[in-house]
Design a protein that fits this description.
The chain is mainly α and 285 residues long. It is built from 13 helices and no strands.
């Protein structure tokens, strides 16, 4: 039975909030864990009620059997590295991949010679992207705003890329085919990854990852809405941040950093990083 179908029981809500307040996890991880625990509580409660147990007694039994608050908090904090360490590790991986792409990309795509601003500009862009993502984009928690925001942003890009004056303008008649193009010339170019076709190819990967990761307590459609909004929102913001720079080369680098940052935030998980880290350690041993 879905959590939304249950009668809201204040004792369960308070119990879970109290536990969550003492665990060292990021906000989104706390929300997912809280949803999972509530589902367990309500499922157990429904089973007890079906056996004609009194409502108040069922609530007390469920909470008592779930466990002591401090014990659960201790177990969770022991099982996971601190949220701060996990956060730093993930951000370092994302920043490293973005910097590598900005250093290697110009040489591969347009045979440009290395310049120091290939490092300096991305570092500045990463700092801005980090602040915007964690202080604004990631703070949004209402799924219906994800949907509204995504639709508005997508229409903005659609209008922008339908402009005939653009070098990489899309043909409306061929729009469906272009969305699934695997032509290397369309996937990359002088603007790096900043092409309508490429944006969609990366978006499809973001959606695919929502299916691969799996989560029994948050419906996949909600996770897709969440990830899609975050991805396109970073692209949207990247347009305006890049436009604040006067140099064309700088604008391209900044826009690509925002695109990569938004993409990697939705496709790289701390769990995956920790598993990879463990495998590397095992290989060394």
């Amino acid at each position: 039975m879905a959590l939304s179908e249950h009668l809201r029981i204040e004792e369960f809500e308070h119990y879970v909030r109290t536990i969550i307040s003492g665990v060292n996890l990021e906000l989104r991880e706390k929300q997912e864990l809280a949803d999972e625990w509530k589902q367990h509580l309500y499922d157990h409660y429904a089973a007890l009620r079906s056996s004609d147990l009194d409502q108040d007694e069922a609530i007390r039994t469920v909470i008592a059997q779930f466990g002591d608050i401090q014990m659960i908090q201790h177990e969770v904090n022991q099982a996971y590295p601190s949220a701060k360490k996990r956060h730093i590790l993930k951000e370092m991986c994302i920043a490293g991949l973005c910097l590598i792409a900005c250093i290697v990309g110009p040489k591969l795509l347009i045979e440009a010679y290395f310049q120091y601003y290939f490092i300096a500009v991305p570092i500045i862009a990463l700092a801005i992207a980090y602040g915007i993502y964690h202080l604004a984009v990631k703070r949004q928690t209402f799924w219906w705003l994800y949907v509204i925001g995504f639709i508005g942003i997508y229409l903005f890009f659609l209008q922008a890329f339908l402009t005939p004056a653009r070098e990489t303008a899309i043909n409306w008649e061929l729009y469906p085919q272009q969305l699934f193009s695997l032509n290397w010339d369309r996937l990359t170019g002088p603007s790096g990854l900043w092409d309508f076709v490429t944006m969609h190819m990366m978006w499809y990967v973001v959606i695919l990852f929502q299916f691969i990761r799996g989560n029994n307590y948050i419906p996949v459609w909600k996770r897709i809405c969440n990830a899609s909004f975050a991805y396109w929102a970073m692209l949207f913001i990247g347009v305006f941040v890049a436009g604040s720079f006067s140099s064309g080369e700088t604008q391209v680098l900044v826009a690509n950093v925002f695109l990569l940052y938004g993409f990697l935030q939705q496709t790289i998980s701390i769990e995956g990083i920790l598993k990879l880290q463990a495998k590397v350690v095992n290989l060394r041993n």
